[in-house]
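User: Can you predict the 3D structure for this chain?
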Amino acid sequence: MDEGGRGSGQIDLARLDDAFYQNPYPQYADWQSRGPVLPLADGGWLLTRHADLSAVYRNRTAFSADKKAAFGPKFGIGTPLYAHHTTSLVFSDPPYHTRVRRQIVGALSPGAIRSLVPGLIALVDGLCERIGRDVLRASTLHESERCAKRDPAEQSFEISVHHVFSFPSGTL
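Assistant: Here is the predicted structure, written as C-alpha cells:
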C-alpha cells in the first residue's frame, strides 16, 4: 500500500492510495509496527497508539485544535476559508466543542438525517420545476442567467443545464 513518501520515512496523508480508503486496517497495522510517533510529510506527527491520542486530546494546555497560526499563512487572515477553519466546531477545543457537540448530536443521527430526505427531495423537485419554467421562458442565455440570479443555487443549476444539454448560445 502506497502511503506517499514511504521511502523518505515520512507519511504523506495526501497521497494515500485507493486501497487505504477501501480497507485502512492493514495500513494502520503497518504504521503501528513502525512506532508510536511517525513523521508526516507536512511537518506534523502521526500518533499510532490510542493511549497517546487520548492523552493529546485531553491536554488542552499543551495541545490545541486552534488553527489560527497554521491557517493564517495558508488561507490568508480574513478570508472565508480562514474564518471557516478557525471557527468550525471541528477545530474547537473543549469545553466549547463538547457543549455544542452535545447540543447538536441528536440532529445528526442517522434517523434525523433520514427524516430530512422527503423534504429535501420536495425542495429540489420544486426548484428544478421552477428553473425549468424560467429556462423555457427565457429567450437568451443572458435572460436565463438574469432569471437565475435570484438564488446562487438556481444560477449554478441553470448554467449547468445549459452545458449539459449543449444549447447553442442565445437559444435558451
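DSSP finds nine helices and two strands in the chain. Residues 153-172 have pLDDT under 50 and may be disordered.
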